[in-house]
Amino acid sequence: MAAYSKFKRWVGASPQWLGGDDRLLLIAFGALVGSCCGVAAVVLNAGLHAMEGLFAGYRSFWWAFLLPGIGAALSSVFLEKIIREGAGHGVPEVVYSVSRHGGLLRMRSMFSRLVSSSLTIGSGGSAGPEAPVVMSGSAIGSNIARMFSLNERQRIALVGCGSAGAVAGIFNAPIAGLVFTIEVIVGEWTARHVVPIAVASVAGAQISRLLQGNQIPFTHLHFDVAISTTIAAGGLAIVTAAACIMLTRALRQSHHLSGKVPLPLWGRAAIGGCLVGIIGIFLPQVLGEGYHVIQKMVEGSFPGGFALVLILLLAKIAATSLTLGWGGSGGIFAPCLVVGSFSGLMYYRGIDALLPGILQVNEGCFALLGMAGMISGMLQAPLTAIFLIVEITGGYETILPLILVSVISTTICHIFEPASFYFRDLIEKGHYLRPRTDARVLADLQISELIEKDCITVPKNMSMGDFVKVVQQSRRNYFPVLDEATGEFAGMIHLDDIRPYLLDTLLHDTVFLEQIMSAGVETVDIDDDLAEVLDRMDDTGSFSMPVVTNRRFVGMLSKATLLDKYRKELMLQTTD
User: Is domain 2-212 given the CATH code 1.10.3080.10 in the classification?
Assistant: First the structure.
């Protein structure tokens, strides 16, 4: 413990002897966090294989359709009753913590989603392991930062390191880990974030490779990409965008529908899982994460025709919505890859049936492009999609149509769904604040630190003559009026409004403050949102407002003080 305390003090002092620059410190911690996240990714993969093996022995029984329901129910009970952590996809929770709470995540989040997603996916639920491992990795970064008492900006950087290391480890894709974290989690490209996150991504991928081999998830034949393929990719982008919108809205409707069912969460999760199991009886390709199905499509060896692929596409969307919308645990990365592959394969077979031989490439190429279109549209993060698909397939020769399908799919999805799947609920609730925006800067300020307390309060039964003496001792133009019996805030007096009374000495003994004060003045509570308070000031034309909590006057909030603090906070946030 003594050695730990000494090291902790050294960490806290290191930016000073490094000339005030903590980047070397963040690089060192980034490597540590990334390595831990690589281990977490390997543990999750092992857990999934163990659960799949456990449930596989029961697949032949007639009641096998209950298995996804059992897994989803156990997952829900584990999260809600044992760990006491709400259900969710994982990534929105991380984004929310970065946006509103300085990257603070609970210690139990380091392992909770690993267990719950293993139960859901291993039993046959249609979900992916990527979002849970992002949650786990981000929590690892957050708690390492807290362990060494790092400041908020450093903690956010380590949360990003955890996310990047987790994605790099689970996909064996370090560039995708870096780009996903910057594009989705952190939301800004700055050297302060990019450098340690890149180191963490490399560390996560390297640990994963050491423990489970250096293999890309999906192998494919070499594709000779002709100009016809690139042109056709534009049409595929429309198909993948439509699939993205269908999946997004199906998930949303499924969640709303399940919320109306008068059952506990584990009961709703069981119902959703059993329905997935019923679909799986007829179409087993939709069960689980579906990576084996993707491999067949990318290889160009998937059986069946256009109609079967279309049915499987719709069934996978339904299974994913029932799994995640009804309370199962997991992410949308893997389902998006599967749906994207089905979309690309369906598109290819449709074109080939109408215009035989026009596409001079194997159908696996379009399965690969479909994955990029689906990921980019669902996340509205085209760079993540491009680098992820290239890294997990090794399909560098497809880069031109890959870029085209990603950017077009993202653009179309943004028209119909202005916010990505991860951000929509956060934005609707006002929980997502983009870095270096007005809302984000104001969110980092508290009303309590802006209160001006040098105001002189006056009782409402004070005479005008006595009030004139108070005015002579004050530098303010406004005075809070209190009820002398209860001490509660009663109103405000502004000198501009009562100047005639001040100058008429005949009124000094006959007029009392209660008669001339403004009783209906708008007030601010100390817990109000500062952005909303500023909007109210603009709407009412006020330059200051009294802060009143539990009917007690606390102080004044002025626009001048607010804007001065705003400027200082903005300078702090824009310093790399």
Answer: yes
CB atoms within 10 A of CB 353: 10
Distances, alpha carbon 419 to alpha carbons 91, 422, 423, 513, in Å: 14, 8, 6, 53
> How many CA atoms lie within 13 Å of 452's alpha carbon, on the beta-carbon side?
20
Chain-centroid distance of CA 427 in Å reads 10
In the prediction, which pLDDT does 9 show?
54
Nearest partner of 378 among 236, 246, 234, judged by Cα: 246
Confidence label for 18 from pLDDT (cuts 50, 70 and 90): very low
User: Measuring CA to CA, which residue among 113, 45, 110, 34 is closest to residue 76?
Assistant: 113
Give the number of other Cβ atoms within 10 Å of residue 406's Cβ.
Answer: 28
Name the residue ranges covered by the structural domains of the chain: 2-212, 227-262+273-432, 441-573
Q: What is the pLDDT of residues 301-321, one digit of tens each?
A: 899 899 999 999 999 999 999
Nearest to 290 by CA among 206, 218, 185: 218
For residue 465, report the phi and psi dihedrals to the nearest 5 degrees: -65, -45
Helix ranges (DSSP H) in 123-190: 130-147, 152-171, 174-180
Neighbours of 531 (CB within 10 A): 17
CA dihedral angle for residue 165, residue 171, residue 177, residue 179, rounded to 10 degrees: 180
**Three-class SS state of 458:** strand
Tens of pLDDT, residue by residue over 207-244, are: 999 998 877 788 777 788 888 889 999 999 999 999 99
Q: Residues 528-557: what's their mean pLDDT? A: 85
Q: What share of the chain is helix, strand, coil (3-state, %, to 5)?
A: 70, 5, 25
CB atoms within 10 A of CB 63: 9
- Residues 44/211, Cβ–Cβ less than 8 Å: no
- Correct CATH for 441-573 of 3.10.580.10, 3.30.10.10, 3.30.9.10, 3.40.50.720: 3.10.580.10
| 227-262+273-432 and 2-212 share a CATH fold | yes
What distance in Å separates the CA atoms of residue 394 and residue 382, rounded to the nearest whole number? 18
Q: What is the pLDDT of residue 87?
A: 64
Given a cut of 60, whether residue 384 has pLDDT beyond it is yes
362-387 average pLDDT score: 94
**H or E stretch at 557:** strand 552-558
**Torsions phi, psi of 298, nearest 5?**
-65, -35
Confidence of residue 439 (pLDDT cuts 50, 70, 90): low
pTM for the structure as a whole: 0.82
* Nearest-angstrom CA–CA distance, 294 and 513: 78
Please give the distance of CA 508 from its chain centroid, rounded to a whole number: 62
Q: Which CATH fold topology does 227-262+273-432 show?
A: Clc chloride channel (1.10.3080)
Distance CA 349, CA 444 (A): 53
